[in-house]
Amino acid sequence: MLKKIIIGVSLTISTLAQAEIIIGQSVPTTGIAAETGKAIALGASLYFNSINGRGGINGELITHIVRDDGYDAKRTVKNTIDFIEKENAVALISYFGTEGVAELIKTKTLDNAGIPLVSVHSGAESLRGNGSLFVFHTRASFTQETDRLVKLLAGNLGVTKIAVVAEKGALGQAGVASLKTSLAKKQLTLMGEASFDGKTGDTSKAAQELAKLNPEAIIIVALSKPAASFVQQYKEKGGTSQIYALSQVQFEEVAKTIGKKGGHGLGISQVFPYPYNPRERLIQEFQTAVFNEMGTGSGKEDSLAAIANYPSYAMLEGYISARLIVEAIKRAGKSPTRSSIYNALTTLKKYDMGGFMIDFSDKKRDGSNFGEITMMSPTGALTR
């Protein structure tokens, strides 16, 4: 029971008791992106709790402080400054969204504090390349995702009439730019573009515009709930295109929003291994961690049922980032500092987590290029 109470507390905006190893995390736990944000934070908490349950790292416990940013860039920045200046955090993990992290990079907030951030829930190219060396990415980039989708559509299926619907703002701009780059490699251009307000999530106008156009395929660059609404509205308006989404979309949220049958046929790009595949050692350990913290019965089925209560890919993302930062803290030695943890992260060269490889060698910060395309079945599950 104690472990479950810790999880609940860590998802509030309250500060936990002072400890020697403080890790900060800014994610939306309210608003349109709340379900995904909570799942990312929960995944990290699962692993941190397991470490603390075994006595911590070199006898030092981890305090995992999670603060709500409501998917608002200004709040992300404020939370980060508080972690740095008030909480004296030694590292940050699994932030959510493109715009907030872009602002941290622009203002050199992380660089000036010398604090590493492990994992960002975004594949935007703007956060990479000329971005901060203090941001360690665990996701494949949007361009890698769109390259796979365009290869499938144009290269394998002969689909050339492709349109996009995207959230207005940094996320949408980044995804659309990557899609255009991928299409250009095949000497193709977008057949059409539609956008919607990311704050309200109202996709009705975009659905109507693209239903009239009715291209062969549509790519969605959006969060889960508006993506689901678009799919439903598009079909209701008579659209027959094959629809695919980038990895920001969580299939469980789609099923909850428009029903399992409503989501049937939606293709989703994934940048992490399938959370229900026990053949991978990483997933076995992830499922065990979920069962130990949240299981109420016994056996594999109970573990899978517990995972299914949350966006599973997002929960796995948080879990992976926590494992990486713990490994870096172990390598940093007794009384870890921001500097020693940063240096330790750069030693994670071709680090095999058990079916998922991370490579932060030298100045490399794009730790993974893993990717696959899945599709929602009539039961709400995924086929791969």
List keywords for this structure.
alpha/beta, Rossmann fold, 45% helix, 16% strand, globular
Task: Classify the helix fraction into a percent range.
Answer: 40-55%
Q: Biggest sheet: strands side by side, in what order?
A: 7-6-8-9-10-13-14
User: What is the fourth-level CATH superfamily of the largest domain?
Assistant: Response regulator
Strand content: 15-25%
**Most strands sheet:** 7 strands, mixed
Q: Spans with pLDDT under 50 lasting ≥5 residues?
A: 1-19
CATH class of the largest domain: Alpha Beta
Global morphology: globular
> How many distinct beta strands?
14
Judged by helices, strands and strand pairing, the structural class is alpha/beta
Number of helices: 15
CATH architecture of the largest domain: 3-Layer(aba) Sandwich
Mean of the pLDDT scores?
A: 92
Q: Note the run of SSEs as H and E.
A: HEHEHEHHEEHEHEHEHEHHEHHHHEEEE
Question: What is CATH's topology name of the largest domain?
Answer: Rossmann fold
| Terminal Cα span | 36 Å
Query: Roughly how many Å is the radius of gyration?
Result: 20 Å
Count structural domains: 2
